[in-house]
Design brief:
Blueprint: H1 12-24, H2 32-43, H3 49-73, H4 75-85, H5 88-109, H6 113-118, H7 120-125, H8 130-166, H9 172-204
């Protein structure tokens, strides 16, 4: 396994930008580009920490802005649909919330995967103040991208050091297999834990 030239690193900062942009436009998992590329790019001297975080956040913000205007395009249709369904009061409350708490709500939404991926569409449909939307998106995205970049750089560094230390004893296939095994065990454990919680909840309902 060659840690000096990562197969993914060839995409560089452009890969991070595109991945974060696509995820913010509703493509789940595209943001994994940041998880996978930040470590190799930093440790191989291809990009600085500041460059990685800024490019990732610019990509995130760009995708969010595009999603916002797509949502804005359908805002009139949404308003007519809500009026037809008699949900005008609920719609007005949502608009009031977006006007008063929109910036904080958008900031918080950028910190979590599912909401980060889709929050921009309803923000546009509700015609949230564009300036507040961009500010909330950029600050929330900056926090998220910084945290993920630090984690990616740390984990890649640890894996690289482990492999270089034990390369003569462990093949990359075995190392990769061990990582996959641990991931599967973690998934099965979490599912079992959820099953136990559901059973326990059912007993007391």
């Amino acid at each position: 396994m060659d840690f000096s030239i990562s197969g993914l690193a060839k995409f560089g900062l452009a890969g991070i930008f595109l991945g974060m942009c696509l995820e913010s436009m509703g493509v789940p998992g595209a943001g994994a580009a940041l998880d996978l590329l930040a470590g190799p790019l930093f440790h191989e001297g291809k990009a600085s920490f500041v460059e990685i975080v800024l490019i990732a956040n610019i990509g995130l913000t760009t995708g969010s802005i595009l999603s916002y205007f797509i949502g804005r395009f359908f805002s009139d249709r949404l308003a007519k649909y809500i009026e037809r369904k008699g949900k005008q009061e609920s719609f007005n409350k949502a608009k009031q919330f977006a006007e008063k708490r929109g910036k904080i709500a958008i900031l918080a939404a950028q910190l979590y995967g599912t909401t980060r991926t889709f929050i921009s569409y309803p923000a546009g449909m509700l015609k949230m103040d564009f300036k507040n939307f961009v500010i909330g998106t950029f600050i929330g995205g900056l926090i998220y991208c910084t945290g993920i970049s630090i984690l990616s750089i740390f984990l890649y560094g640890q894996l690289k050091a482990f492999y270089e230390k034990y390369a003569n004893f462990v093949s990359w296939q075995v190392l990769f297999g061990a990582v996959i095994f641990l991931v599967l065990v973690s998934i099965l454990f979490n599912r079992s834990l959820k099953g136990i919680k559901n059973q326990a909840r059912g007993r007391y309902l």
